[in-house]
């Protein structure tokens, strides 16, 4: 019976890959999705909205508050605290009573946290196995240190990130490697290093409700962004890893959250830095490449960064999203932040891949001759 079923499925697979049967089958499948699936999805969205509104009215399902429990201390480790979202989220978290380990690439950044008794700066290079291991030891030492209260590791926030611009042709291999090293392998390295703490707490029953929060980007969901291809590749990778990690950590009761912001005001999205990056990329091209593409293509490439210049939202919304993912007892598994991420790019994601909107809409000079 099993072999017969497998044979029929294989036969069906073969038939559905023969034209014009495959063309008709594809159209019929998506017509069913549009006629049946979308109305059901609309009902699901409506019920989800009602559920979330009721939850908000009733207190949001509860908050994690270290100050409310005199028998325990909760710690959070945030990477990338030299600037941007990482530095900004430390203050509200410590104000709520969390002990925050602030991972900083540069020791000079420690000064920003000197006046905060609950902020513990730790030098951290997420591209280094040794550095991440040493950071883990700092947290493990804190947890085992003598204290009248039980100490638990509540959250790991993977926030450290860099951006490298360029198309596939313009960006150099070191640009792709550096971006993946921080944005993907850096996240993976931290997750793997701190995972034993989460598993130990869960298996021993000493603490439940821990979570791993990863800062991705709308670039991790949206198929586009010709101007920042290395960055887009790294964010797609970290999004995929986060999805798999969520399933893996479910038996341990560890929640996995992915935050996908749009364009926000941070040093990484500074217009001056962006313009400087564009000039550096262009100047690094060979004379023949510059001739092939031309100044018109360069200007179109430069214009691809206009959304960052004109529509960079207030960074506090992302900071609030990080904070909520840490304090909500039942945080959203994915948080889109920003008008562009929530509604603009979300619509573009529904389009077939072939109908994607290119960032650069000008042909290279060599194709206009």
Lateral strand order in the biggest sheet:
3-2-1-4-5-6-7
Structural class: alpha/beta
The CATH homologous superfamily of the largest domain is termed NAD(P)-binding Rossmann-like Domain
- Helices and strands, in order, run as HHEHEEHEHHEHEHHHHEH
In one word, what is the shape?
globular
* Major sheet summary line: 7 strands, parallel
CATH class category label of the largest domain: Alpha Beta
The tally of structural domains comes to 2
Low-pLDDT parts are none
Strand content: 5-15%
Global mean pLDDT: 88
Distance between the termini: 64 Å
User: Care to count the β-strands?
Assistant: 7
Under the CATH scheme, the architecture of the largest domain is 3-Layer(aba) Sandwich
CATH topology of the largest domain: Rossmann fold
Report the radius of gyration as a whole number of Å: 24 Å
Q: Helical residue percent?
A: 40-55%
Number of distinct helices: 12
Keywords: Membrane, Transmembrane, Transmembrane helix
Pfam family, one: adh_short
Family: Belongs to the short-chain dehydrogenases/reductases (SDR) family.
GO biological process, one term: steroid metabolic process
């Amino acid at each position: 019976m099993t072999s017969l079923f497998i044979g029929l499925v294989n036969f069906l697979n073969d038939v559905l890959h023969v034209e014009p049967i495959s063309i008709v089958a594809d159209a019929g499948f998506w017509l069913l999705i549009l006629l049946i699936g979308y109305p059901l999805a609309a009902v699901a969205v409506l019920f989800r909205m009602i559920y979330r509104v009721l939850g908000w009215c009733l207190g949001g399902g509860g908050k994690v508050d270290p100050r409310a429990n005199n028998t325990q201390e909760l710690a959070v480790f945030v990477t990338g605290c030299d600037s941007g979202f990482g530095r900004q989220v430390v203050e509200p978290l410590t104000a709520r009573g969390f002990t925050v380990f602030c991972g900083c690439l540069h020791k000079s950044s420690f000064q920003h946290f000197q006046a905060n008794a609950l902020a513990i700066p730790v030098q951290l290079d997420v591209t280094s196995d040794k550095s991440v291991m040493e950071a883990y030891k700092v947290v493990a030492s804190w947890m085992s240190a003598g204290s009248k209260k039980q100490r638990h590791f509540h959250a790991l926030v993977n926030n450290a990130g860099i951006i490298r611009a360029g198309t596939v042709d313009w960006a150099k291999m070191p640009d792709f490697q550096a971006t993946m090293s921080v944005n993907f392998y850096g996240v993976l390295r931290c997750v793997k290093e701190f995972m034993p703490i989460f598993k130990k707490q869960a298996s021993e029953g000493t603490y439940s409700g821990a979570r791993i929060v990863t800062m991705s980007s709308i670039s991790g969901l949206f198929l586009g962004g010709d101007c920042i291809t290395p960055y887009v590749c790294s964010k797609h990778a970290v999004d995929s890893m986060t999805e798999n990690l969520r399933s893996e950590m479910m038996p341990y009761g560890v929640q996995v959250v992915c935050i996908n912001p749009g364009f926000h005001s941070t040093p990484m999205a500074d217009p001056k830095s962006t313009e400087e990056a564009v000039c550096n990329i262009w100047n690094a091209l060979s004379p023949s490449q510059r001739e092939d593409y031309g100044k018109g293509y360069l200007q179109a490439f430069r214009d691809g960064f206009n959304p960052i210049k004109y529509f960079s939202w207030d960074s506090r919304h992302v900071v609030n999203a990080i904070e909520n993912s840490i304090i909500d007892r039942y945080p959203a598994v994915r948080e889109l932040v920003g008008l562009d991420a929530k509604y603009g790019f979300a619509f573009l994601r529904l389009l077939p891949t072939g109908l994607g909107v290119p960032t650069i809409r000008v042909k290279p000079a060599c194709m206009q001759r």
